[in-house]
């Protein structure tokens, strides 16, 4: 649980840093503006990814609180210990995750 809470703090800090560091690009020429636009898109992609990870972590903590952590949301079987160690935010067992990925 401490690991998940640490991930929340880290993700929130990353998002805040990216938002703070994004400039407005005033006074740039066209080449600089293009570079800034590309960098901004990259930063927004990172922010979206961090936000998704943050939501997954918060969801895992909620599952811990309500006693459903470690149970597959699709088939209700136990999620393997090694899978949870590798990806603590997992909500699906390996079988269900593979089935979902094939779709």
TrEMBL record:
Residues 19-41 are annotated as: Disordered. Pfam families: zf-dskA_traR. SUPFAM superfamilies: DnaK suppressor protein DksA, alpha-hairpin domain, Glucocorticoid receptor-like (DNA-binding domain). The keyword Zinc applies. PROSITE patterns: ZF_DKSA_1, ZF_DKSA_2. Residues 67-101 form the Zinc finger DksA/TraR C4-type domain. Keywords: Metal-binding, Zinc, Zinc-finger. GO terms for molecular function: zinc ion binding. InterPro entries: DnaK_N (IPR037187), Znf_DskA_TraR (IPR000962), Znf_DskA_TraR_CS (IPR020458). This is Unannotated protein.
């Amino acid at each position: 649980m401490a690991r998940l809470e640490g991930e929340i703090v880290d993700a929130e800090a990353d998002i805040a840093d990216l938002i703070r560091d994004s400039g407005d690009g005033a006074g740039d020429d066209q080449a600089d503006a293009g570079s800034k636009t590309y960098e901004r898109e990259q930063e927004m992609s990172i922010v979206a990814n961090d936000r998704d990870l943050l939501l997954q972590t918060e969801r895992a903590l909620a599952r811990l609180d309500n006693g459903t952590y470690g149970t597959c949301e699709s088939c209700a079987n136990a999620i393997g210990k090694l899978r949870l160690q590798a990806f603590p935010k997992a909500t699906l067992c390996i079988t269900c995750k593979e089935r979902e990925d094939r779709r």
